[in-house]
Spy/CpxP family protein refolding chaperone
Amino acid sequence: MKTLQKKFCIALVSVSLGLAVSAGNVVAQSSAPPSASAHAGHEKPHGDPGKWAEKMKERMAKHQAELHDKLKITAAQEPAWKTFVEAMNPGTMPARPDRKEMEKLTTPERMEKSLEKMKEHLAKMQTRLTALKTFYAVLTPEQQKIFDERHKRMASHMRDRMDKRMGEHGHGMHKDGERPSMMDKK
């Protein structure tokens, strides 16, 4: 059950990141060809969280500016753009639950806590979706095409990173590149 819950959380996070990616809120693909240095400057969240958060803010601002320029946002579209960018702002990361406190809870209580967190996350995603739809509606068909293409590329990049990360931790892929099914786990 814990594995299923974990997979559900990963799926929710992936969807949320996909929305954030469309705003340019996540790490952009490097224009350089993939290599060992392709992830240079992309620090993992461990280490100094303040430093990591600051770098993420800088990247987000850069990517938002690039998307703004690429879309050629007009003065009439600017209010919807600002609302969209504000909604996509990830804010502060929620504190992890205290492990000792969680261990004191029964299994149903722990699951209820997890469900509460998922509902909070879902509410944030709904807010982002509403802002996305409002912004998308003011774009011209040409701008929508640019926006959609950028989102597809960024979402694909994020999926690849998630697959790689899952593989590094012994989850996710078989040697043949296929994801294991629930039936594989006996």
